[in-house]
């Protein structure tokens, strides 16, 4: 036993290492085998031609054009009202101070001296002399001119960049007024002195305008035709050559040890996370090497598919090429893992695979987000799978979620509205369609290869059109209807004890198919034609009755029923004793009869579902034998049957608790009370007599 455990650990380690290497190689795998390692300024060792036609964005030229557009946007300035008020106030104060001097009753020479002292700037020769003798009304006219000119100038943004230019217009503006030479000189000099920039630089508004201008610049697309020469032998490599080679996937990136180490850690921890979860939460899956290999295959397939889709180049619509990754149907992996392995595990794998899909792509985080939400939509879409069309409905859900997520993320990323809507309307539905197609297509092959029975297979087995059920209906109709009722009982009880209700129902439908070999030896198929067991000794009758289990297993294998259904067929009687024939043998041969000769061969039920079918089978047969099945008698009989099975040890290996048995009894009571309820006895009415009475 210890050796077997060690072998299992070794196999799990080898499987882990194999997938680890496979995932690592997939991350660095390129679909173009012939790649070159060139750098700017190097001499090309060979002539390289384009292996296919593509249209790609020249990012360097696009960025250059956008930077040019940004540089052409002028700085944004905001007029400062306080600066304007300060300038006007200073100019008015200047003119008022000179006006006070002019109003004084002083000799002109003295006024001239005071004016020179008051001025913050120098005057040309003779101007102060004339100014001291100016008429007061002329001075006020000069002041009005100054106010008007400033009012006109200060309405505009005066910045450090245009300040010199604005000052150059002062002479022209002053000359518009009918002023004398000294008045004009003082006016020009004062305006030159007091005028200054009135606008404050707004870096935030400037950047917004520049960003808007850059975004308005369309991408620069470059078209390359198949077999077009990219670079000739002996030519000097330029940035343009490298851009074309990179777009074609022909440029080999320089190896980076840091990239390799990062990828190793990323893959290692991405693989370790689900294993750690399974070890702690779902040990039975962790110890099932078959399921671990299946998990690795599904994950590898979806990552390889993502790699292939991301390599697609949409030549006719180059702006769509970077967005084609949105079509990656991660939902297919989520649905397959949820259906074949475990629902909670599928949600965890969705997050991890979304991370790996977005890693290293141009879309990066956006692709991971869309993949994650579309995967969740797929997982929840099959969480309660009840019919095959639920898979198609899950595909629709994936498409809708992907469409909304793509549109939201592209609009947030400021992608042009037309491109965002087109990408969402194309790649969202494609994502959902591919997910549904791959899930439907691969599901039966994976089930067969890994011997897993999914809910979809069980649903197909539950349809009345299945050949074996049709055969049971035609050749053993009593057993068929008994099986349907057992299925209803088992399914209702399974819902109460967290068992697989679909498996319980399907197992119940097929549990008695072995009776097809000798249908009339079972009471439900005799229909008043006599009981053949009355002419047989009890031992032979027991052999015939117990053989229906072995016959059922053989028939199930002939019709290729899943092993979990075969197990229920084999275990649904456990090692129970056939009380009727045992008692009959005692009546004939005395108490020395060996009870073991009248037991089913087993094995005992090993799952909740097999135990539920056993209990439902026994309860249905017992209740059907009641002469007047009142609710109270039904409830008592149900609990007696369950207690007998418990005391006989038939439930020892089924993992059912006492609380489960109580819940099962309640579920059985509810179903059976609805079937065997009392009915009103309809009176016998003579229609002919009523008709005659009506006529009379």
UniProtKB/TrEMBL annotation:
PANTHER family in the record, alphabetically?
CYCLIC-DI-AMP PHOSPHODIESTERASE PGPH (PTHR36442:SF1)
- Which superkingdom, per the lineage? Bacteria
Q: Where are the transmembrane segments?
A: 12-32, 260-280, 292-312, 332-355, 391-409, 421-443
**InterPro entries (alphabetical):** HD/PDEase_dom (IPR003607), HD_domain (IPR006674), HDIG_dom (IPR006675), Metal-dep_PHydrolase_7TM_extra (IPR011624), Metal-dep_PHydrolase_7TM_intra (IPR011621), PgpH_phosphodiesterase (IPR052722)
- Report what the protein is called: HDIG domain protein
In terms of SMART domains, this protein maps to: HDc
Keyword set for this entry?
Answer: Membrane, Transmembrane, Transmembrane helix
Is Ubl conjugation one of the keywords? no
Q: Where is the HD domain?
A: 479-622
Q: Which residues form a coiled coil?
A: none
Annotated PROSITE patterns: HD
**UniProt source species:** Carboxydothermus hydrogenoformans (strain ATCC BAA-161 / DSM 6008 / Z-2901)
For whether the record's keyword set contains Transport, the answer is: no
